[in-house]
Design a protein that fits this description.
Elements: E1 23-28, E2 31-36, H1 47-62, E3 68-73, E4 77-79, H2 107-112, E5 117-121, E6 124-126, H3 128-135, E7 138-142, E8 146-148, H4 159-169, H5 171-180, E9 183-185, H6 186-192, E10 197-199, H7 204-215, H8 220-234, H9 239-245, H10 249-260
Parallel strand pairs: 2-3, 3-5, 4-6, 5-7, 6-8, 7-10
Antiparallel strand pairs: 1-2, 8-9
Helix pairs in contact: 4-5
């Protein structure tokens, strides 16, 4: 697999190189494993990492030697969402000024994938990480995993989450999850219907691989028909509202407050916290 030498200039994806040293595409025939490995930032995704995941899905789709893709993280973190600090060394292309620029995100590509994609959720899973798990075909979850949708705490109008979650959970639980930014344990996420499989942590990769094997027993064209119906049910989110929210003073204040580990200025003074939410 091509790799980037330490100190080398960032470069775009090519072959099995995903455009960032923080993602690895490992061939474990007949599957590929995509490993998110950025422990110094708790696996927070840079723009290049978001795009690298998107690229990896298409790479596997086009490779006749690969039957499916497994996505997982390292340590006790799956994916906590995007890197709001934007001080990253892998920016090989100007993706735009807004964090989470919509044209680099992998969510729709995951929903459209030709080959099956299974997430092995090994730990903290929130923001963009939870969306990746929800847009994959199946998520197998460690008993240690936790889940959260913190976008409103950062001033982001995440209409994608609102669109998807209301269909998965219904409006009552969607309001609870999004408007409070609460954390769910793996057991709670299973009870809510947010995930379908929770396993002992030490069995995670074995079980997730087994799920990929099971999915690959089904007929590819018939499977695509079912995915098409499910995709139509989820529908399209309001991209304009979400795009606009990333450019408002409110989201800029939300990002700044997160980095500075304080409450945003929209929080009533009596309710502000010294540490970020």
């Amino acid at each position: 697999m091509p790799d980037a030498a330490p100190g080398s200039a960032p470069r775009p994806p090519e072959g099995d190189w995903l455009g960032t040293p923080y993602l690895r595409l490992e061939r474990r025939a007949p599957f590929a494993h995509l490993v998110v490995d950025r422990p110094e930032a708790r696996n927070a995704l840079t723009q290049a990492m978001y795009f690298g995941i998107r690229y990896a899905v298409r790479r596997v789709d086009a490779d006749p030697d690969l039957a499916g893709l497994l996505i997982t993280g390292t340590g006790d973190v799956f994916i906590p969402g995007g890197d709001l600090g934007k001080k990253v060394p892998d920016n090989w292309f100007d993706f735009g000024a807004a964090p989470g620029a919509l044209d680099v995100l992998p969510f729709d590509v995951l929903r459209q994938s030709i080959k099956p994609v299974v997430c092995a959720v090994n730990g903290i899973c929130q923001g963009g990480g939870l969306m990746i798990a929800l847009c994959s075909d199946v998520a197998v979850v460690s008993e240690r995993a936790t889940f959260r949708v913190p976008e409103l705490l950062r001033g982001i109008s995440d209409t994608y989450y609102a669109q998807l979650l209301v269909r998965l959970l219904g409006p009552v639980r969607t309001r609870d999850l999004m408007l409070t930014g609460r954390r769910l344990t793996a057991a709670e996420a299973l009870d809510w219907g947010l995930v379908s499989r929770v396993v002992p942590h030490d069995e995670l990769l074995e079980t997730a691989t087994g799920v990929l094997v099971e999915v690959c027993q089904t007929a590819p064209e018939a499977r695509r028909d079912i995915k098409r119906v499910l995709d139509q049910y989820v529908g399209l989110h309001d991209r304009i509202a979400m795009f606009d929210s990333l450019r408002r003073p409110e989201s800029r204040e939300g990002f700044a407050a997160f980095i500075e580990k304080r409450s945003p200025n929209w929080v009533p003074e009596a309710l502000r916290r010294d540490a970020r939410a």
